[in-house]
Amino acid sequence: MKPKHILGLLVVAAALAYLIFGGLGQNLVYFITPSEYFQQAERYQNRPVRLGGLVKAGSLYYNPQTLELRFVVTDGVKEIPVRSSGATPPALFGENRGVVVEGRFQDGTFVSQNLLVKHSESYQAPKEGWTPEQVRKLIEETQ
């Protein structure tokens, strides 16, 4: 093979690698708990994130006419208010239940575009006093 052909192949390979892997970091969706968010809040600004935790008891507000949904996600240590609109929450969604919301942080509130609630036969409710790591493991096991 001629050197100019090899060089051409290397340029094409480098361009493909950049397109595939270069944009990958911008398209990743991180899974975090409220405690992890507060440890590195600036890292998660203006990027898609999946926030996992429990729906705090007494924080749930839903208006079926406007489809406005507000609640607080907690990992037992930290709490983050969540706002969602335009969709009816799933039947399994409720207080003291595990939830994963996908969206972005905006002005101290997590604005959700997608609400994920999944049921598993092996689901176990978190116990009072669990660490954020224990809550995170529980949420990941139920996904």
TrEMBL record:
GO molecular-function terms, A-Z:
heme binding; metal ion binding
GO BP terms in the entry: cytochrome complex assembly; protein-heme linkage
Please list the residues that bind heme. 119, 123
Identify the domain of life: Bacteria
Which keywords has UniProt assigned to this entry? Answer: Cytochrome c-type biogenesis, Heme, Iron, Membrane, Metal-binding, Signal-anchor, Transmembrane, Transmembrane helix
Q: Which GO terms describe its cellular component?
A: plasma membrane
Pfam families for the chain? CcmE (PF03100)
Task: Specify whether Transmembrane is a keyword of the entry.
Answer: yes
Return the InterPro entries for the record.
CcmE, CcmE-like_sf, NA-bd_OB-fold
Keyword match Transmembrane: yes
Compartments annotated for it: namely: Membrane
| NCBIfam families linked | PRK13254.1-1
Task: Please identify the protein, giving its name as recorded.
Answer: Cytochrome c-type biogenesis protein CcmE
